[in-house]
Amino acid sequence: MPFTVLLVDDEPLVRAGLRAVLEAQPDIEVVGEAADGAAVIPLVNRLRPDVVAMDVRMPLMDGIEATRLVLRTVPDPPKILVVTTFENDEYVYEALRAGADGFLLKRARPAEIVHAVRLVAEGESLLFPAAVRQLAAEYGTNEARAALERAALTDREEEVLRLVARGLSNAEIAAGLTVGIETVKTHVSSILAKLGARDRTQAVIAAYESGFVAPS
Q: What are the pLDDT digits (tens) for 89-137?
């Protein structure tokens, strides 16, 4: 079955460009479009896409609030890929904090767009560019540091979290640590549970905000 995608952007040309790129792939199907975040919930409930490619800046409801609504109200919500013009946009960071799973620049090359959708849909790696890592570090708080300390990660879990923060997939982490992929999945699940994180992106935000990982 192909990955299904809902496109949400107030610019028709952007939606048309994304549709053309994605529908050229045999494993990706665009199942719908919306021009504003306010239209996302009914479309997600009706179409049940695997991924929502969501513009972060829209006139009626921006991608941040739309992301929050999807995650709060939709059972088994789709992955959310934030699409924006500027990589250092604080809106992007807020969308990731709200629960978005990845990040894509509108000027990305077709191969990068396809890769981003597949990566987010599969959920075993993440898109977390250097500019957003820097923002996360700048937003660091004593509360974030205390929360990481309370999580009491084991030495191996700390090692895995650092590798996740570098954007490595479970398979890449397993190869680097010379362990089985199921072992890595177990460690990642434990990290998410201890941090109270919904997914890898939220765990990495916690790692940067707490100062556990520094932006390179």
A: 677 778 888 888 888 888 889 998 998 899 888 876 565 666 666 777 7
Q: Given the structure tokens 């300390």, which residue do they identify?
A: 149
**Distance between CA atoms of residues 51 and 174, nearest Å:** 26
Which residues, other chains included, contact 99 with Cβ-Cβ below 8 Å and sequence gap of 6+?
67, 68, 71, 80, 198, 199, 201, 202
Residue type, 194: K
> What is the rounded CA–CA span in Å between residue 156 and residue 176?
13
For 123, the token pair is 């959920």
Q: What is the rounded CA–CA span in Å between residue 60 and residue 58?
A: 6
Distance of CA 35 to the CA centre of its chain: 21
- Main-chain phi, psi angles of 91, to 5 degrees: -60, -40
Q: Which residue has the tokens 């924006």?
A: 84
Neighbours of 96 (CB within 10 A): 27
Q: What is the pTM of this model?
A: 0.77
> Residue 212 pairs with which residues in a beta bridge?
none
Closest by Cα among 73, 64, 72, 6 to 35: 6
What strands, in cross-sheet order, belong to the sheet with 3-8?
28-34, 3-8, 51-55, 79-84, 102-105
| pLDDT one-digit tens code per residue, 135-145 | 777 766 778 88
